[in-house]
What does this fold into?
Amino acid sequence: MASPVRLADVVAALGGTLIGDDALAIVRLAPLESADATSLSFLANPRYAAQLAASQAACVIVAPALQDMAVVRGAAIVTPDPYLYFARLTQWWAARTRHAPAAGVHPSAVVEPGARIHASASVGALAYVGAGAVIGPGAVIGTHCHIGGDAAVGEGTRLAAHVTLGAACVIGARGIVHAGVVIGADGFGFAPDQGAWVKIEQLGAVRIADDVEIGANTCIDRGALDDTVLDDGVKLDNLIQVGHNVHIGAHSAMAGCVGIAGSARIGKHCTAGGGAIILGHLQLVDHVHITAATVVTRSILKPGQYSGLFPFDDNASWEKNAATLRQLHTLRDRIRALEKAEK
It folds into this structure.
């Protein structure tokens, strides 16, 4: 259990307006429904305001519109965006409760000649760092990681256990790469030859910019000739496939099991729901939002929300078509009745 922290310390670190006892001790962060008298919780969506009155939390983070309701039941931290405040609170909390890996190279790690590892970096047990690789200040290379030759890991980037960063692939600063991720496997490229397949060697790499987070067991293939690129702030969930030569623009986010085929270009601030598929060589402009399980079969050149399997369309049109589809059985019966009446 974490050592107690005063509400005064929270507000001093993160801001906000505290109403209540600033010496109140907090031991954990918790959702409203399971919070107790040692918990700090938050309410971001007014839809769940009913849970506020019943919550046992010592203090609740709320927006100004819910201040009066929150104060009736106890202490409150008032801030314009409770969800953003909570996100920053979790980072602050983790920094003070988690043990940072010790700097240095574990005796069981293998570091090839010519690799450069900053003195403040940490290389875990049974990791491998190839010749010419560069590990930046404060970077963390987890146990059983493989860092290929001439690869680079930026300052403060953390690789969890069993991450593979292929030869010549690069990830920038402050990245988070979860367990089992493979960056820089060969792209899926083959030429047909009389019923067989001839491999196209994948000669590019993967370039990942700063502040990127990649979920567990996601795979990002190296490019065939040019590089596969993820720009600043991209967020990828678990089990995502990014094909060769894909380019994902800054601050785009993809949920679990999204598949992006080779040479697709995704703009900035785009999102894709779980299980969505984007076919190869397509372009999505900035601020395109694909809902879950949608199959994108043509380029999208206008910002907006898109949905559908049969086929996808702008969201408003798709919803109208889906509503009509639910009436097909009734329409069929009416047509049959009309045809019988005409005979």
Remarks:
- The longest helix spans residues 82-97.
- The mean pLDDT is 96.
- The chain has two domains: 5-97, 104-316.
- The chain is about 20% helix and 30% strand.
